[in-house]
Amino acid sequence: MSKGIVLLAAGGTGGHVFPAEALAFKLKERGYSVHLVTDSRAERYAGKFPAEEIHVVPSATIGSKNPVAVARSLWTLWSGMRAAKKLIQRLKPVIVVGFGGYPTVPPLLAATRLGVASMLHEQNAVMGRANKALAPRVKAIAGGFLPESGDAFSDKTVATGNPVRPAILAAAEQPYHPSLSGEPFHLVVFGGSQGAQYFSKAMPTAISLLDEELRARLRVTQQVRPEDMEMVRGCVAQLQMGADIAPFFNDMAERLAKAHLVICRSGASTVSEISVIGRPAILVPYPHALDHDQAANAAALAATGGAKVITQSELSPERIASILSHVMNDPEKLSHMAAAAKLAGKPDAANLLADMVEAIAAGKTVSEFKRTRA
User: Fold this and answer.
1) Are residues 340 and 355 in the same domain?
2) Is 312 marked within a binding site?
3) 58-95 residue pLDDT tens
4) In the chain, how many domains are there?
5) Could you tell me the CATH number of the domain that includes residue 102?
6) Nearest to 5 by CA among 42, 53, 47
7) Which of 104, 146, 210, 333 is disulfide-compatible with 9, CB 3.0–4.6 A?
């Protein structure tokens, strides 16, 4: 018999859905039923998400200054809140947990108005706009990189870390094996939904600048936008190198486990997953992020020595080639970085977040929950 329903709300990107998925697995193990509210973008993740049902409610972001567009967005949000209210009244969840992104706004607003226990999980070191708007209304906030002091909402914040998926925890069981001279060197490159274009252009040029001996060792996994696939495949064929190129990899956890080096953006989930698995990384924060959250996320891992942070403006193809030339000939350095990254990982974040969800659902305050942890 189920302990009750937990309603998770997440925007339709991997950065929002993956932590929600990790929590969902833990809650299912503990006897809860899980439902997910999201948008249509999350369909590609739906096959693995352990939810009894996935619900889509109307939602919109207010990013335009056009009065007509603003009015349309407000109407959509109002419609979404009404739909979410009906959903919550039907499901009667013990708690509603938001993971950021504008699709979380209607269900969290509806939950707080109905008096249903509610909390947020913020993946980044800087709170996103949707979560910031909802933060005053909810009972608690779990933080991936948020501080527990010195912040406007620190009195209701618990630094849980970012929960990672079971596939990442399984990958973390594989120790880092350095690539020695003459051996294959596995390089994983990805940029997220907004950031892959830069790598699509920079990486083939960088690889072409490598000595032939190093290029022959490379085994590249690279996430590429559909519109860039033809260009990158052409470059790979011309360079006659081993590479897997795709817009999305369902087995990214396994590929990260095999990686000798990762070059990527620094979204919160990405930084957390690299840390838990323990792989050296070159982090390139997305330069157009509104709140510079990726730069703050990257700094957290760089502080431990597990990653090197380089801004996109400073990362030319020539510099990428220089970095690859150095690290491919210095396996000891990469081994040290891998160990430092592993020390920064929080593999138990999903358990801690599940503990917090249960406590808030049971009516405990954040202060009471913190005392139980002490």
Assistant:
1) no
2) no
3) 776 666 667 776 677 667 777 888 999 999 999 999 99
4) 2
5) 3.40.50.2000
6) 53
7) 104
> Same structural domain for residues 151 and 218?
no
Spatial separation of the C-alpha atoms in residues 343 and 341, rounded to whole Å: 5
My answer on whether 44 and 149 are in the same domain is yes
Enclosing domain of residue 174: 168-344
Cα-based torsion angle of the residue sequence 339, 341, 343, 345 in order, rounded to the nearest 10 degrees: -140
294 annotated as a binding-site residue: yes
pTM of the predicted structure, to 2 decimals: 0.84
Would you say 269 is a known binding-site residue?
Answer: no
Clarify whether residues 215 and 260 are in a common domain.
Answer: yes
- Ligand-binding annotation for 13, yes or no, is yes
- List strand residue ranges (DSSP E) for 226-280, in order: 242-246, 261-264
- Same domain? 67 vs 104: yes
138 and 226 within one domain = no
Residue 348 tokens read as: 């138990």
Rounded CA separation 189/147 (Å)? 29
Which residues does residue 79 pair with via DSSP β-bridges, in sequence order? none
Residue 165 assigned as binding residue: yes
**pLDDT per residue as tens digits for the range 281-302:** 999 998 877 667 899 899 989 9
Tell me if 335 sits within 8 A of 178, measured CB to CB: yes
Distance from first CA to last CA of the chain, Å, rounded?
32
**Whether residues 338 and 209 fall in one domain:** yes
Q: Is 242 annotated as a binding residue?
A: no
**Spans in the chain with pLDDT lower than 50:** none
- Structural tokens at position 219: 């085994």
Residues 144, 186 within the same domain: no
